[in-house]
User: Fold this.
Amino acid sequence: MRVTLAIFRARICVLALLAAIPVLLVAQQTRLKYPETRKVETIDNYNGTKVADPYRWLEAIDSKEVADWIKAENAITTPYLAALPGRDAFKARITTLYNYPRTSVAHWEGGRWWYSKNSGLQKQDVRYGRGTLNGPEQMVLDPNELSPDGSVALSDFTPSPDGKHFTFGQSEGGSDWVTLYVRDLATNKNTADIIKWVKFSATQWTKDGQGFFYSRFPEPTKGKQLEEKLEHQTLYYHKLGTNQTADVKVYERPDNPAWFVYGQLDETGRYLFVFTTKGTDKNELYLADLGEPQHPNVRAAIQPIVTGQDANYSPLGVANGQLFIQVDKNAPNRKIVATPIAKVAPANWMTVIPEGTMPIESASMIAGQIGVLTLQDVASVMRLYSLDGKQSKEVKPPGLGAASGLLGRFDRPEILYSFTSPLQPSTVYVYDSKTGVSQPFNPPKLTFDSARLVSERVFYSSKDGTRVPMFVTHSRDLVKNGQNPSITSTPVFSASVIAWIEQGGVYALANIRGGGEYGEKWHQAGQFEQKQNVFDDFIGAAEYLVREKYTSSSHLAINGGSNGGLLVGAVMTQRPGLYAAALPQVGVMDMLRYDRFTGGAAWVTEYGASSDPKAFAYLRAYSPLQNIKPNVCYPATLVTTADHDDRVVPSHSFKFTARLQE
Assistant:
């Protein structure tokens, strides 16, 4: 169930935002009467500092009282949005823009190329296979048949190396919980194998096709599946035809129950890499030699490669007796090292591709080489290297934008990547290393005239003088008069954005600190007590757009989801007069309690926790919920969440909405 919570104000800035678009009319100015939201006297003591939480009861997301509150909120929001005169026109145009075929990057396994494809308006992408990249395709799984209303999502699809089976995962109602099934490709029927309570885990088939590795959590308390803190994730091996209760426990960390544990097989199927991590950053790395891939020893001893979770270590693969690893230890822009597989300790590591001025975004072992994707001012640069680190070729992308890849297998010649930009939907390309030419694979057909639009990369200075890049997309005939309706967001291609630009809008994508655009230093500059840099960068983007007369504060909307929802919540409470409208989606709004629900504890490595006195001080300083103040004119705000999102629990949005309405 999608929940939409609205806080509207009869502000001239909102009307100017809407009136600037010809198809929209001035919205109603009558003051809305919000439902009375019950308050309770709940006070938490954080090391001597008392903080009230009067809407704590909205954390009981399965209670009837919360459900009734949601209905009352939607009873205001839904008619209000439905009455907007321009809504139907935008809906029709957006529907047309989204109706184009699109394809994922294909990958080779079990004698076939596998990829997903959407004909245009299908709720979920359909999985296909084909013998050659140019051969006929065969549909193997249509997740739209799992549930016509789209409430059951396909969350995993992994073919077996022998080409006889594939695993697929189902998750319900937007939850991260996954149930894995196995399907026989010959009969197109499910086997009796069912794996439950999987979350944040990919299936790793052994080379013999007789089973797979996966990670799962213990079964949660009944009725608390969407709230209970995640602990004791464990790596298992499942043999086809057996019950889950007989699965082999491969690796666990009972000494650190909050750690995440997962596995990854190399391309040959001989080596199993095991990872442990406290959250979203930094990991330990272990290795198990399974022996003969066609007869793997799934109980093989697991030996440490590097422990301590002091950096990020990503194994790329094994070739010529050497293990290649991407690391950022003492290399914030990342480097690639190699070590004999028989001597994997860091003391034996040799740098193959050193850290450069451009951060390595990803690397892979493909076509007998090492493919490296780097970023130069947020635009992708792709290069191929020999195993001894010598650059052989540069793969030219079709324009200024973002690539995913280079992808393929080490034992096959094909090299694939996808490319997108603010004006180009994600498109898959096949690169010919002999000719240096990239050809599109199942290219999408544009549903708009890209020649009428332009996307430019600009730079601006943040509060502390940091140079920040931003993509600004608009019509070619844009007049910088400060009257253009604008949206500032985080980078993504979206057909709905094209509809906005076609009506005279401007779309700005700010590449703020906290991400990896300029390597690990850029990421760390937005962590913990430096999180305010993220907000300052975003505020700086808005100020730049106003200063350069792309728009004005009375025409500017801001949008972001999840961590981006936190961003929108923070900047709208810090600089409310800078924006006309705000759209925080599934935002992390209560930074004092986020780590107490489901996987929230994993973000402590990014944010810090309120139980730490030092972290409490800076978390409270920017936490959106705790920084809403009376007698302040906030932007017109539309809050969206899902009533059973178990990643960012909806109580964040519920409490934020109730407080803002108050």
Observations:
- The longest strand covers residues 189-198.
